[in-house]
Structures are given as C-alpha cells and as structure tokens.
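Q: Given only this backbone (65 positions), what sequence would you predict?
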C-alpha cells in the first residue's frame, strides 16, 4: 500500500514478473503493521490487557492467616 498525502493508494508490486498480493495488514516479528491505525492500536491494547492479567495472577500477594 502506498500513500498520496494521507490517503492510501492501490499499487501493483511485481517481483520476477509475478504480481504480489496486496494486503491491508500483516504481522512481522510479533507486531501488526497496517495503514489503518485503529487496528494496530486495538491489537496493542488487547496484548497489554493479556499481559496485565497474567502478571496480576503471577504476582498476586500471598494471603497469610
């Protein structure tokens, strides 16, 4: 995906005379890369929530009687 100012523009990518598929988003090294910022922000927020829940369960103070 290419951009003209702030608007995405469809482009054709050709490598070795083969047209490559154009995608809206893809995952690279655990990060979602997208030209639609909302999707990326939502994904990062959900990951933070998952990590927070795991940490709360692991680091919960021990109850003593």
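A: Predicted residues:
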């Amino acid at each position: 995906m290419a951009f003209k100012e702030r608007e995405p523009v469809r482009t054709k990518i050709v490598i070795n005379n083969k047209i490559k598929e154009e995608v809206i988003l893809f995952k690279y090294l655990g990060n979602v890369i997208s030209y639609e910022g909302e999707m990326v922000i939502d994904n990062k927020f959900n990951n933070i929530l998952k990590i927070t829940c795991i940490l709360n369960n692991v680091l919960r103070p021990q109850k003593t009687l």
